[in-house]
Amino acid sequence: MRNRLKKELGLFDVFAISTGAMFSSGFFLLPGIASHYTGASVFLAYMLAGVLILPSMFSIAEISTALPRSGGAYFFLDRSLGPLMGTIGGLGTYFALMLKTAFAIIGIGAYAAIFWEVPTKTVAIVATFFFMALNLVGAKKTSAFQKVFVTFLLVILVAFIVDGIYSIYFGDSISKEALDMQFTPFLSDGLEGLFTSAGFVFVSYLGLTQIVSVAEEIKNPEKNIPLGMVLSLIVTGLIYGLGVYIMVAVIEPEVFAKEMAPAAVAASQMFNWLPDNAGVLLMSVAALAAFASTGNAGLLSASRYPFAMGRDKLLPAILSRIGGKGTPLVAIFFTTAFIILFILLLSEEGIVKLASTFQLLIFMFINFSVIVFRKSKIESYDPGYLSPLYPFMQIVGIVVSFILIIYLGWMPILFTAGIVVMGLLWYYFHARGKVKREGAIFHWFALLGKYQYDELENELMTILKEKGLRQGDPFDETVIKSKISMLKAPADIDKVLDKVSDYFRTELQRSKKVIKDKFMQSLLDDSVIILPGVLIFHAKYKNVLKPSMQIIVSKSAISGEIPFKNKEEISPIHICCFLINTDEKPKQQLRMLSRLVDILEREDVVKKLLTMNSHREIKEYLLQNENFVSVKLLKGTSQGAMIGQQLMEVQLPKDVLVALIERHNKTFTPNGSTVLQEDDILTILGETKSISKLFKGYIGSETEKW
């Protein structure tokens, strides 16, 4: 589709975007300001904030593995609580991200001014245009730049911590008495001050959730999103806690409270093994790298919000336009303009409070969204990661966010209320008439007999199909062991259902009539999936040990009275697929079904299947992946050495399996004692690397492709 983004980002990309978005103002600017609220215990405030964000992180990880789409919090709220909340959440998170990004880019100008006499905001604007150019060439190249930033930054920060711990506890520059003085008073304003400070520095961890705004571009999101977020939080939390502890230990409290570059000041008293001022230079360069990584990742993430909202008609559709490099061109320009405006008009502490307050409100809604999705009972809501301790984790997240908002004061609360009002007005006067959907919350209400939006289930099913199978889903095994019936004589639907029910009755331990009646009922209640020339029946039964499939391929169109609701729209049926699974694994059944649909809705699928003359060809077509190869045993070729051997004697890689053998136009599943014969066609399944090696060794050189 034209408005789908490329999946280019792996685990390290996830880690780099998330981590790089956190190490800027949180480490290089905010510690001194945050100490105003709690004194020397400010390092605990950072660690407390890292713990308090856990419920929201778990909730975001769950929803983003179920709905890997650009737009992050906006998309989650829209599909769970409806487009009104999506509008409010999308606009609010968008502005919070842009504010944080603008603040970070201003930091580039501020630190550059230490070395050169240059206007801070001019440097910041030039940097913004540079990041815009990076984002225009694609998320992969943006992330490659990000990985360089983050790697360099982590090396310097780890060196800072190691040198700081050594200087404090093993050097002779700080005595125990002096160290005690540095941490007195410890909690200058009690627990209230600690929580206020934690709320203030909460913005330092917002990069942890920025990654979900590019979830649509992440490969294997069910693994890479939660793992990348957890790794990022662990690394960032440790560096924040230890790094700020070192700053408190080596900087005079009065100086620390006023210092806008505490990391550089701390470095000036460390790194004694380096030339004079080398420590300051090193930390200043690290700060520039940190601000650059946050500005880069911030622009990348923020631009996906108007893109996603434009795609859903909540903002003008032009914002969803994709450029030639596969990036949201107009959304990037739009976001760049706003960031430059903020750079020109705004400044420091208030921005941090505003961004933190609205983000905390969004976290409340996201935690509630997990409860809504689970209560909605939508089968196609299939997250690859489930939040632990549900629903207590989500309830704690809601309560914690509410408490931190209160501690941050009235000014940011009023700003948040202003964004909410703006979102309401925009929705009712611009978007309401253009959007014809509701969120999962109406499916929850439907349990009480109220309205629900059925198209949401279709959208989630589409997302499920795009995500593909999960590791461990036995789709390939089910295809290999499936029963294929190729009908040359004309047949009606009653005969087809009769034949299939007879096949399944032994496996399901049910009468043929009961099975046939269930298939017929699925036609009547419209649960059969209808594709051009294809019917896909699916059912779940108790006590089914493993999935089972039967496929009917009829040379003539299947006749008889098929009870469709819209008969005039149905093309002649030639293919009938039947997929049976246990009722204990409904999500697995949906994933396998979506994979089958994805294969059978491709262009000319019926024409291709009807030209196939063997069960092996049909099964290989349904496998449709890079994990198998077909090899024909011919004398005089490298694989000819297999002829006359038992299968157990053949030297093949350990991670491959000969799944099928076609012999004299008949297909069967072999065992270890099967003796291989000339002209046998072997279907070999296994890991991609091993299959590729076999392909090059057998097919790529001496034999024809099969």
Task: Report the uncertain regions.
Answer: 700-706
Strands, count: 9
Radius of gyration based on Cα positions: 30 Å
Averaging pLDDT over every residue, what do you get?
A: 82
Largest sheet: 5 strands, mixed
Distance between the termini: 31 Å
Oligomer: single chain
Number of helices: 29
Strand order of the largest sheet: 1-4-5-3-2
Question: What would you note in describing this structure?
Answer:
The longest helix has 34 residues. The two termini are 31 Å apart. Helix content is 59%, strand content 8%. The strands form two sheets. Strands 1-4-5-3-2 form a five-stranded mixed β-sheet, with helices on both faces. The protein is built from 29 helices and nine strands. Helix 13 packs across helix 15. It has 706 residues and is α+β, with helices and mostly antiparallel strands. The chain is elongated and about 90 Å long.
